[in-house]
Every structure is written in C-alpha cells, then in structure tokens.
Amino acid sequence: MAATTGPNTVSAGRYVGQAVKRLEDPRLLSGHGRYVDDVQLPGMLHVAFVRSSVARGTIVSIDTAAALALPGVHAVYTGADLNPRVGMFWHTMMGPPPELGGQTPYAPLTPLAGDDVRFVGDPIAVVIADNRYIAEDAADLVEVEIDAQQAIVGWETALDTDQRVHPGMASNVGQEMPATEVPEVEALFAGAPHVFTRRFAQCRATNVPMEPRGIIVHFDQYAGDMQIWAATQSASEWKATASRLTGVAEHRVKVVANDVGGGFGQKMMMTRDEAAVVMAAHLFGEAPIKWTEDRRESLMTANQGREEICDVTFAVTDDGVLLGAKVVFWEDIGAYPSAASSIAGMAGAVFPGPYKFPVVLPSGSTLYTNTVGKAAYRGPWMIETVAREQMMDHIAYELGIDPIEIRRRNVIHADDLPYTTCTTMVYESVTPSETMEQALEMLDVAAFRAMQAEAREQGRLLGMGVSIYIEPSAVAFGILSSDQAIMRMDNSGKVIVAMSTGNHGQSLETTIPQIVAEHLGCNIEDVLLVQGNTESSPTGPGTGGSRSAVVAGGAAMTAALKLKDKIVQIAAHMLEASPDDMEVNESVVSVKGTPAKALPFAMIAPIAYQMPEMLPQGMEMGLEVTARFQPAGQYTWSNATHVCTVEIDPETGMTKILRYIVSEDCGRMVNPMVVEGQIAGGVVQGIGGVLFENMIYDDDGNPLCTTFLDYLIPTAPEVPDIEVGHIETLAPGLTGFKGMGEGGAIAAPPCVANAIHDALRHLGIHPTTFPLGPSQVLQLLNDAKG
Amino acid sequence: MKPSPFTYHAPESIAEATALLAELGDDAKALAGGQSLVPMLSLRLAAFEHLVDLNRVAGLNAIERVNGHLRLGATVRQATAEHSAEVKSSVPLLARALPHIGHFQIRNRGTVGGSIAHADPASELPAVALALDAVIEAAGPGGTRRIAASDFFVSTWETALNDGEILSAVEFPVWSGRCGFAVEELTRRHGDFAIVGTAVGVQVDGDAVTKATIALFGVGATPLRASEAEAALMAGADVAEVARAATAGLTPSDDVHASGAYRTQVAAVMVRRALTKAIQEARA
Amino acid sequence: MSDETVVQFTVNGRSRRVVVEPRKLLSDVLREDLHLTGTHVGCEHGACGACTVMVDGAAVRSCLMFAVQAAGSEVVTVEGVTPTDGTLNTFQQAMQDCHGLQCGFCTPGFVVSMTSYLADNPAPTDDDLKIALSGNLCRCTGYRGIINAARTAAGLPVPANAADGSDH
Question: What's the pTM value of the predicted model, to 2 decimals?
C-alpha cells in the first residue's frame, strides 16, 4: 500500500502512473472535435418529433396533412407507420426479454406511441424535412387529439392504483425482489439492544450530458447497408440494436461514434427516440436523416435517474456495533426505462459496503409511472450508499457516539482481508479504514470541531460529513465481461490499437496509449487508439460502468505484452541472441548489457511484413495481435472516503460547502490527473443531487424543469476546491487497475447530507430527504422552532 | 428549439422604428439585446410575424447627465453601463445591480432599456428603476412621453408602453448628500434569476435617515415599493422592524425553486441586510 | 417561410457572405453554413455558454443572436482564437495542463469566454475568475481543472493538491 496526498504515485512507470497531458485535448480545445451534430452529409435531411403534451391518454386521431403540405417536408411517420415494421427491440447488455428466452423484464417498447401516450414528451410522430427549422414548423402543424386520463405519478400511486401505466400489465411493478423471512434474523432483531428505522429518499435527477442525444442514420436501400453516426457510449450495442430493429443483417450495419459530449449512462442503450429515427431512415431509404436532440427534449424526454426510496432498519449494540440490517428499496422507473431497474440487481448486494454487517436482508420493487423512463446515471445503484451512510450518522446520534467513531467500530480493516460480506461479495484488496483516516487527517477534525463550536456560539451553523463506499467497478456479466484489443504495428513501427470503447470524456485516447507504450516499450506518440467505430473495432461493451481502465486497459496491456514478445523474438533471431537476454526501451530492442547490439521497431516492423526469410523458422509474418481480457472477478472493488464541511445560513437555508476532501484507492493509477478529474466531476454531480438538482413533476405528470433555468446544475462559484488524497493498493490480477469513474457521484450526496445534518442536529433536525436546497433547509429550521 | 419564421426589420431611426411598430401592431415585436426575447422565440413560447431590431437605431446608446438625472439610451448595453464611471458615481444603485444580471456574456449583449421594457418581475433593473423613481421615456409615432416608473410596470412582462411605442431612454435621478445603496438577492447559483431580492437606498443626516427607498423583486407580478416601510425607517424604526413591515402582506407565488412563504420570509432578511449595508455606507 | 436575406460579415478575419432566413440563429449559421463546428449548441436558451463567440470584441451567446444581426460585424469563434502555428493560446494551454476538459463539448465556450475575459481583465481575483466562469456549464470536470486553468492563465496560485499534466 502506498499513500500520498500529492499527484505522484509510488508505482509510477515511464507512462503508467504519470499525469500525462491528454493527447485528445488540442483538437477539442481548438474547436476541431467531431461530435455527431458536426457531421454534414450530402442530401442530409433533418428530423423533429411530435410529442405528447399529456402524460397519459388515448390517441384519438393524428392528422399529418397540414404538415405534409408544408414546402420542405419530405415525410411524416406515426406509430402506425413505424411500429409494425420493428423486428425486435431489446438491448444486448440486458439480454433478450422473457418471451425470447431471456430474463430481463422490459417495458413494452415501441419506437413511437401506439394507441396511447404514457408520459409528457412521448414521441408520437417523426417529421423529416429540409432543415430543423422547417421540421419544427411542420411538427407544430401535426394535429393530435388525445383523450387524456389521470396520470399515474409517484411510486406510491403506482403501487396503489388499479390503473396501469402499460395497459394489459397485471400490475405497475416492473421488477420485484421479495422480502425473505428468516427466523434467525427476526430473533436477532427482536433481541437486539437497539433497532432503528429510517426512510431515506432522493429526488429525481437527470444526467445532463452537455451534448444532448443525436443520431444520423443513412439506410442505403440499394446497397442494403445502414450507416449510423451517433452520440453513444457503445457502438457495438447500437449496431446490434439497429440490426434487430430493422432486420438489416448486423454485418451490414456500421456505427460510428466519434467524439461524444458526455453520457454518464444516458447514452449506453439506444432509446425509443433514436430507434424511431433508425426505423424512419429504414422506411425512408432515400437520404441520410439527422436528429439532434435539443435541450428541452433532453430535459423532458431523455432517460433520467435517482428518485428512490430506501427504508432501512438497523440492529445495533449499545456500542454502535452493527448486528444486521433490513433494507427495502422503492424505485420509480417511469414509463420506459432503458433497463428495468438499477436497484433490484445491485443495490442490495453491495449494501454492506465498507462495514462488517453480520446480516443484510434486502428487498425491493420498481414501479412504472407516467414519467420519463429511468436510465443508468453514474452509480445507478448508489441509493445504498446514500441510505447506509446517512443511517450511520442517524444511529450515531441516537446512541450518542461520534459518527467517525461508530464507523471505526464497524469498518473493514486490512487485517480482515480477504473479507466476504454477508451478501457474498469478496474483497481482497480494499482500504476503507485507511482512506477514512487519510481523509480525516487532511481535514484536521479537531481544528474543525473547535471552529464549529466557536461559530455556533455566534449563531452560525457549521457541520462536517463523512461517507465511505466500496465501488463495484467493472461489473462483469454478459457482454460487459470482457473487451478486446486488436493491435497492429505498421511498417514504420507505429502502433494502432482498436477497441470497443468510446470517447465521452474518459481520456482513453491518452490512457490506453500510456498502457500500451509502457508495456510495449515505445514512445506514447507512436500509439493511436481507434475506438467508437464498429468496422475497425471489436465487439465489446463500450465505455461505461467504471470499466474501461480495468477491462479495456487489461486487454491493451495483454496485447502489448504479446506484441512485444513477437518483436523481441524477431530481434533476438536477427541479433543471434536469446529472447531472454533482450530488453526494450523507447522502441529499441537491444541485448542486455550490449547496447550496440540493437534494433529499432522501425527496422523490425518492415522485416515482419516484407522479409519472411529473416523471421524465426515457422513464425507467421506480420505484427498483429489480438487479446481479449476478462477480469478475474465479477467486480473489481475500488474504494474511497469523502469528507466535507459546510456552513448553512440560518436565515435563508443556503448551504455553502467550505471544504471537500476525497481519499481514493483505485489501485494502480494509469494517470492520476485523469483519476482526479473523474473524482471531481463525480463529486460535483453528487453535490448537485443534494443542493441544486430536482426534476419535478406535477400531479398531472407535467415536467416542471424543462430548461436550464429550472433544472440547475452546479456552476464554478458553487463548487469548492476538491482536495484529493491517494492510497494505492493493487487490484488482484495482471494490471492492478481498479475502476473509479462513478464513485465520486456515489459518495458525495450522503457526505453533503451528513454535513448538513451535523450542522443542524443540535437543533433537533435530522434530515432524510433530498433535495436539501435553501427552501427545504429553511423549512426544517422553521419546523424545529415550532 | 428554432424560432418560427418572421420578417426582419432593421430601422435606423426612432421615427422609422416607431412607424413600423405602429403599422404592424400586435404582429410585431421590438428586439433590443434579445437575451430574453430570443430564447422565448426559440422555445416557441412567443412568435411574431415581424421583429423590429432597435440595435441599428441611431442615438439610442448614449449615457449623459440631464437635469439632475443620468439618462441611458435604450440600447446601452448592460456591460457598458456596468463599466461606466459616470454610472458608478451618479447612480451607484444601478451600478451595483448590473453585475447580478446573468453572466458577463449576457450583459455584453443585453441592454438596460430592454431589461426594463421586458419587465420581468424577478429581474433587478425594473426594481432599481422603481426604487429610484426613474422616468421612462417612451417614443411613439406621435413623439415622446415620459412615464414614471411607478406607473410603468403593469404586470409580468407587461408595461405601460402602447402599441407602436418603444422605450427610448431611462432617466435615473442622481442622489446627493450622504447616501448609501445596496442590492441584496438570493439566488440558487451565481447569475440566476433571484428567488427574491431588494434594491435599497438611504440618505442620512447624522443619525437620522432623511430619505429612503426600498424596492422588492421576485415577490409579485411587478417589482414593489415598500412605501410604509420607507416612512417607518425615516421615522426612526430599526431595520429589522422595517424589514418586517416591508414584507408584510406579500403574497408571492410558488415555483420549483421556492414556496411563496419562503420568498416572504427571506425577503425580510434581504431587506434587513441591504438596509444595514446601505446605512453603514451612508454613515461612513 | 420568410424570405432569405444576404448577410455579409467577417468571421475569424475572413469576409463571409451567406444567404439565410432571418430567423436562423448565428450559432446555426456558423456551424451549418460556414462549417465552423467548434461553436457548440448546448441549450439554445442562453444558459449553457457552449455557443459563446466574440462579436465586435465582446463575448456573447451566438444562440441568442440572429445571424442577420451580425451583418457588418466581426465575429471570432473558437477556431479563430486558436493560434495558426499549431500551438494553443494561453488559456487553451492552461486547460490542457490542468485537465480542464473531459468530453470537450462545453470546452469551446469556456475557451472563447475566458480568452475574451482575460484579455479585458488581466488581473482578476480568484473570486472574479469563478464568477467569470459562472456563465458556462460543464458536466464532466466539476470545474476543478477549469478553475485551475483560469488561475494559471491569470497568474494566480493553484492549490498544491492537484495532479497537473507533466511534460510528456
């Protein structure tokens, strides 16, 4: 284990572990990135959607005549045109639906609304026109008559009502993890010194990639080929989905995702809107068509996240030692979630997190409502950390124990490892205790407590919060289990590596070359990552779920070692030395101790391609290798502790974050600068989820936050300087890398909430519900005054 | 989010502009900085067959002292006013309100006159105009008329301007003597529309407050003057009491950011803090 | 549809002429008619700042102007603030050094805004910088690298606890 609060890492090599400046930056900084809306094709036409203005109702009629009569309009398609043409609509990542032999319960997916609408923004028709301006003019001319019905809004309503979001379904429950009655656990709770129950709730948020969704589809009906340019996190996933939708053979579908302006989970799966564009292009068949989602559409119709309830019951001893927990999750998944649930599968399993729970009994239900569907959003299971970490503070205050002390009594220590949680998760290499102590040292708890006491004398409200989590990175199941590197050295000794990954902010164009250059022994400038293109890249998971460093990084490293091995064999043969006596530095293979006996890659590569007679006997020509990497476990665990301090204005309820500290262990760091960037980005999204962001629907299912004046994401003046400490314990296996992309967004919300709780608890205020914006906090203060 | 079609007019004189607006009536809208109007058009919350762009009208972008007032032409950019030494020294309240408007990129384009004519009840400049008893000059086909700020703001986005009239200038009185001014507002983030805010000014003579103005924004359909509270302050009431008086009886509405009750409660805090600052400044 | 009009203006130092509908936003004309796709459209209601360009020397939202309003003006986009010799300007270079961008979509707006701001305000305070940055939204970086880039470009100290780009 190596600990540092600075950027340098103990295991740093020439490239891996170094804060290498990003290779992709010059083009992005100068305005020469290539995002989907930047692509203009000859003859390209533009799409606008006609969308429902009511949350639930029966479509009585759709009149497209006036729209079709507008000059510049080429086609208007409704559900009746497109839906019957769909082959299959399901996601590779989730597997097929039960009727096709799978296990994933899907909402009944059709690209456009059929007989009824199920949320405000539900796509009803696709307009294809010369440009977006005319397309919007035409969309306004489509007359839709809807017989509106009372919307089903809120998970409790969905549970109680006899009405159905999806007509024909037996209930509004999407997925259920039933509660289990275990007599021993009941006895344990009955006999426990203390049993505490709380309900924690977090409000709905949305991912807000700065680039909204977008897709260009060109179906060349004469060639039988479909080409798609898209803002997607996974080109492979979209290729397969488009093929299933249209019946165009998968090898005739090409998907290109160049630069993508953020996703945070929202752009992983192809959604109904994009599927409608695919189907429209397939039917239209004449020209490429482009849909660029605008911000109102993005806030009104792109899949959203959070909005979960967690009922937690903890049994504890007088000393605050955890005896067990029962956890019930309720999740509002809207009408058309891109995956049926994020909770049922994961949150219960990872609930124990950093603590030694003897038993945890999770259960939960997901409920369909007449609102936008739910997608993955950076740590989609994170309600477990939100609930658990707040609950630790609640029980600490109930028992009169310091929240730090109660964590120390329950946290997993180095000498507990390897540790198997009560939910059968196995930790070999995690440091929850060490990160907590490092973060607390960075804060100087005693100094803060003194400042807090002094401030309180003056009527000022200061508080500190702690949260610890263990991040299940690189979740490996189904298509997510592995990735491949296709690596080739060209004639000049330069390296191209193709992967299934994508660029939506993860810096892989720099970090994958760092890994390759480190392990192949070349200069980083000589390595190029090709990604986001299904013709040149392998089938794989894409980028998401904190996986690329682990899975793609593992594949890149394995391929680099394989390629190096072949190069060394060729060089050794030519230099008449043993391969075991060779070393590789800066693209030169030499005999150890005899630097004069050396061959650069630039001389070896042409031999491999052009001079078979100079190769070792029986060696295949060329310098191409592939390597597919599958991590050893189903999860690669990273961990961190967050600590922050806040001041609350007692007269306005406004919270200001004073300091924010993260101690992170993501194993061997490929690039600490990139690691810290991922931490900061996640933390600020997490802060947003507590203090600023709240996607509100009224009782009729109308979304009330459809502009950036209503849905508030943090800006520069609202965020503190984020201080980062590092602890490096290698992950088991080849690379030592652990994923960490989601953790910041997982741990920050309870950390901020706990700091607010700490600032207010002496007034008898114990918050449990997000958001904790100024109006909510002032209400709590007013209520406490009575 | 693309605007509906319109015909674009770029008149070069006030006469030309007002004649166009009078002729086109409800089908036309005057365009100044466009920082509020253009998003409404793009969201298709508003649509006009004609836009009359005032940016090329001559003589609308001057800042000058006239008869104890500082006169700002309709198309003076907010950034220009913000950085004007004349505005800082003559109308400190305006200078202090301007940095609260959006962000510097917005103020580079947005105009002082446009903001007042747009009459958003949550924005700062209408409240400043009301607080200072500014005079709004309206130009129409028949010439100009002068409207007191207290008569100008009718309701949300609604003013006393008639069809065919444009706001051609705003004249802010210049205060003399020992004065202090403050703008206090509560925003969720820097640059957001205020949930609630206040613009205040005081003039003191020794311990006495001899002149006081308190305007509130974000609490109703227009900015509001708290006249009784002003009188109480001049009668010697303490600022906390004045703040309560200023906000008694308000009935602000709820929105996604805060309830009406929250606005009322915090408005009193803002008024107290603003008056404390302004009085301190005046006495310094 | 309203009639198209001729708009002549200077973009990044070159005289340009386009024929567009009056309702066409400056952001769309730059991107679609002039193929300057570095100006990004992130909200079309003036809130995100991704489309920021300079018009007659002042940073403004190009989604809140009609191209026809820019007739006769000098417009500078992110492509135009970038040196032509393959280097980056001071703020751009600081952005790379401080990891001020991830997905890069909001980046051109920050680059134009801060290039303009720092030219007009060469000696800002730390608070001034954060306020100057408040008109641009970023969802990836948490602003950490962007604030540090602004500090670096303005000659202000950067907190010690941050990994910055080494010279590789």
Answer: 0.97
Query: Mapping DSSP to helix (H, G, I), strand (E, B) and coil, where does residue B149 land?
Result: helix
Q: What is the pLDDT of residues A111-142, one digit of tens each?
A: 999 999 999 999 999 999 999 999 999 999 99
**CA angle, residues A158, A161, A163, in degrees to nearest 5:** 95
Alpha-carbon gap, residue B155 to B151, rounded angstroms: 11
Residues A757, A679, single domain; the answer is yes
Tell which of A136, A137, A652 to mutate to test the B interface (max B CBs under 10 Å).
Answer: A652
Map B19-86 to HEC letters. Answer: HHHHHHHHHEEEECCCCCHHHHHHCCCCCCCEEEECCCCCCCCCEEEECCEEEEECCCEHHHHHCCHH
**What count of other Cβ atoms lies within 10 Å of the Cβ of residue A595?**
11
pLDDT at C2: 59
Report residue A148: phi and psi, to 5°: -75, 145
By C-alpha distance, which of A235, A282, A218 is closest to A84?
A: A282
Q: Is A221:C53 a contact under the CB 8 Å cutoff?
A: no
Positive or negative CA dihedral for B116, B120, B121, B123? negative
Domain closes at, from B173, B197, B222: B173
> Domain containing A621 — which CATH number?
3.30.365.10
Please say which residue of A590, A609, A629 terminates a domain. A629
pLDDT digits (tens, 9 = 90+) for C86-139: 999 999 999 999 999 999 999 999 999 999 999 999 999 999 999 999 999 999
ipTM over 0.90: yes
The helix (H) or strand (E) run that includes residue B274 is helix B260-283
Closest residue to B38, CB basis, from C64, C117, C135:
C64
Q: Containing H/E element for B225?
A: strand B224-225
User: Do B167 and B185 have their domain in common?
Assistant: no
Q: Could you list the residue range(s) of the whole structural domain that residue B43 is in?
A: 7-52
Whether B166 and B238 map to the same domain: the answer is no
Nearest chain B residue to C112 by CA distance is B105
Q: What is the DSSP letter of A273?
A: H
User: Given the DSSP bridges, would you call strands A45-51 and A289-292 parallel, antiparallel or unpaired?
Assistant: parallel
How far is C17 from A355, CA to CA, in rounded Å?
Answer: 67
Q: Pick the residue from chain B with its C-alpha nearest to A781.
A: B262
Number of CB atoms found within 10 A of residue A69's CB: 10
User: Given CB atoms, is B188 within the 8 Å cutoff of chain A?
Assistant: yes
**Is there a contact between A744 and A623 (Cβ–Cβ < 8 Å)?**
no
Nearest to B219 by CA among B180, B178, B248, B179: B248
Is A459 in the same domain as A487?
A: no
In contact, B81 and B98? CB cutoff 8 Å: yes
CATH number for the domain spanning B68: value is: 3.30.465.10
Q: Print the domain residue range for A696.
A: 431-473+636-786
One domain for residues B192 and B251: yes
DSSP 8-state symbol, A384: H
Please classify residue A419 by burial: count the beta carbons closer than 10 Å to its beta carbon, then call 0-12 exposed, 13-18 middle and 19+ buried.
middle
Q: Do B104 and C2 touch (CB under 8 A)?
A: no
Out of A37, A682, A709, whose CB is closest to C47?
Answer: A709
Q: For chain B, say whether C44 makes contact (Cβ under 8 Å).
A: yes
Give the pLDDT score at A23.
97
Structural tokens at position A487: 């690596």
Query: Which whole-number Å values give the CA distances from B176 to A173, A560, B91, B92, B227, in the listed order?
Result: 70, 78, 10, 11, 20
* A560 lies in the same domain as A673: no
Q: Is A709 on the interface with B (CB under 8 A)?
A: yes
Locate A668 and state its tokens.
């061997």
> Is A463 in the same domain as A601?
no
Q: Determine contact, residues C61/B109, Cβ cutoff 8 Å.
A: yes
Domains and CATH numbers, chain C: 5-78 (3.10.20.30), 90-154 (1.10.150.120)
| Per-residue tokens: A701 | 């299912």
